[in-house]
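Re-running Zinc finger ZPR1-type domain-containing protein to confirm reproducibility after the cluster update. Everything else is unchanged from the original entry.
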Amino acid sequence: MLNRQVVKSESATIKIPELDFEIPPEAQRGSLSTIEGILTRAAEALEALQEERRKADPKTAEAIDEFLVKLRACASGESPFTFVLDDPAGNSFIENPYAPSPDPALLLKFYERTPEQQAALGYLADSSQSGEPQQEAAGTVNHTDEELHGAVGAKAGRRAIAQANTSEIVEALCRYTSPEEVMTFPSTCGTCAARCETRMFVTNIPYFKEVIVMASTCDACGYRNSELKPGGSISEKAKRITVHVKNINDLNRDVIKSDSASVKIPELDLELASGTLGGIVTTVEGLVTKISESLERVHGFTFGDSLDESRKGKWQDFRTRLNKLLSLEEPWTLIIDDALANSFVAPVTDNIQDDSQLTLEEYERTWEQNEEFGLNDMDTSSADAAYNTN
Ligand SMILES: [Zn+2]
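Result of re-run:
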């Protein structure tokens, strides 16, 4: 647990609620360490000034001595604690030692950046333009990692299904609409604030739902952005899509995997929790390629010399098996399970009933799923207050 690798970007804050302890973005910025290493360094930094403190402010020094005992107990694994990494830029990372299986101890939450966070990260040329409706219109709503109580909340309803810094979403979905239904209107570039153009269409994807597709291209800075949003209200039920992949037609099926969907490939014991990969519009083949690329990117730095041979071998073997799915030597199964029913796999037949390799199941969301997306209609403000004053 304590040996997990951690990347703390320069915008990330680390909190240990049990100790009321916080490592701000400025401290240990841009570090690659382990949980133990980060806590040990924090303890050393506090310890370094203790001699001076004992002369100038003995009371504080004594309190810090007591605190250091607790912090070191956490660093050595004697006391259990919660390690919260909050990065508005989404550039930080905590290693999953059980990968590619899910990590039972890790909870990953995505949340929408506040205008203040966007401004702090330099994503807005002029922070006075940070009004939410304008951001929505410019299609720059982003999702980032966090682990704060109830942060996603009721925003589930207007969350994007998928978002990309390219025009691939609009290209993939434009054949579900006719060109005359595409509206064009002026907007503001989310990156450089220049005037730019946004294309938008609303379309009903057969056997899925009504969706809103928006794409912006900025001639001034070259920024591209496309976004897919659900039309209508949140689905009453969750949806599980199972595809029995046997031939090239299956690999070419259109896939919308939303941010709220988990992906399973039982033949590989592969399970990606919801939130992994974000929301993407692709094909079955594209999804496998993206999983492979993402595992390589995330674990790329652990392929270095420091990684022991057996673990390196395990990863290379897994990647080979993943890429083999695309050669269709054996049939395999893709399961996309979406608590908000915002995912879709296209049938290969005109009538979905005739598509024997595609199964759709609707089911009642569990209490935990509702909780994850803030749909339990619970008042969490007292819990949040308790968390904040910890
Ligand atoms: Zn621009």
